[in-house]
Design a protein that fits this description.
It comes from Candidatus Acidiferrum panamense. The protein is mainly α and about 325 residues long. The protein has helices at about 10-30, 40-65, 75-95, 105-135, 145-165, 200-205, 220-240, 250-265, 270-300, 300-325; strands at about 180, 185. The protein contains ten helices and two strands. The chain has a two-stranded antiparallel ribbon with strand order 1-2.
Length: about 325
């Protein structure tokens, strides 16, 4: 969720509520002979408001699980979750008079601070990462299809190299004739010893025609030795594990240098296949980048959600104990 102009009303309301709460708290501090207390009328009001904000923020999960509920738009819930969740921390601090109190209260305060901090961190990620994804991953594909698309790129690279170097013993793809990627169907006829062109069609899911390779594309064993060595020792291991930063091909500038050097060692008729291999490496890097960004985009929830649930449960226990005893 990007923080844009649509958040303006929520932001203004939240800051206005914070200012009003601060004024009420200061008045209570000046008028209370023993200082602000959570059990006073003002303290209880702040406590009820804070618990209400926490419960509202927690209900976002239920709202997402039951999208058919006619309880407002999902975007409105998200904005409310962000701004009311952020407002919860100062409200609860006003409730406690900035004192952590006993063990349960201390645990609750630390839980609240960590939960709010993780939420702010997650909101920043959700605002920033989509921009990075658009700029750095122009061939973005469906996340669940990444492994499949990666396998297709590896198969395409195998065929491209074998069209130039001859049979290298790679297993043939079990998908003959039709390949699927990104939730779409990419109709790409597979011909033996013919390199597939426009590898971006694999991850884009578009239909692409196969350019028939010239008959003289095949190189002799001596001519193809540099490409064979490069592919077996560097490129194919990279395509199998593109996320490893130790690979030279994992870095765009270093990969360009590798392919530029390889062009000087190969005859001109192999340069077209080499360009295809360079495109495949670029797509593999983009898939690895998308995978890492996706993990950042959603990984923080592994901390935020359990802490939020613990906060709701312990907050309810604290409220019952405070009212009963």
């Amino acid at each position: 969720m990007r923080i844009d102009r649509t958040h303006r009303a929520w932001a203004i309301t939240a800051f206005a509520a914070l200012a009003a709460a601060a004024i009420v708290y200061l008045i209570d501090v000046l008028n209370a002979p023993q200082g602000p207390r959570g059990g006073s009328a003002v303290g209880l009001t702040f406590g009820i408001l804070g618990l209400g904000f926490v419960i509202f923020a927690a209900l976002l999960g239920a709202r997402k699980r039951v999208p058919t509920w006619r309880l407002g738009r999902a975007q409105a819930w998200m904005r409310g979750h962000l701004w009311l969740g952020l407002l919860t921390l100062p409200i609860i601090l006003f409730h406690a008079g900035f004192h952590f109190g006993g063990t349960l209260t201390r645990v609750l305060m630390w839980l609240l601070m960590i939960t709010v901090a993780s939420g702010v961190f997650g909101a920043a990620l959700q605002h920033y990462i989509p921009r990075v994804m658009t700029a750095e991953v122009p061939l973005e594909t469906v996340y669940d299809e990444i492994d499949h698309v990666r396998a297709l790129l590896r198969q395409e690279a195998d065929r491209t190299v074998e069209a130039v170097c001859g049979n290298l013993g790679f297993a043939k793809s079990s998908t003959e004739g039709t390949q699927r990627a990104g939730g779409f169907t990419a109709l790409r006829p597979i011909a033996a010893a013919v390199p597939l062109r426009t590898s971006s069609a694999v991850s884009a899911g578009a239909s692409a025609a196969v350019a028939t390779a010239p008959e003289n594309t095949r190189l002799s064993e001596e001519e193809s030795a540099p490409l064979r060595t490069f592919y077996l020792n560097e490129m194919r291991p990279f395509l199998e594990c593109p996320g490893k930063h130790t690979h030279r091909l994992a870095h765009s500038a270093r990969a360009s240098g590798s392919f530029a050097g390889l062009r000087t060692l190969l005859p001109g008729r192999a340069h077209g296949a080499l360009a295809d291999l360079e495109d495949i490496c670029d797509e593999a890097r983009q898939l690895a980048r998308q995978e890492k960004l996706h993990q950042w985009l959603h990984g923080w929830l592994l901390v935020h959600i359990p802490l939020s649930l613990a906060l709701v449960l312990l907050g309810a226990v604290h409220a019952v104990m405070a009212l009963r005893y």
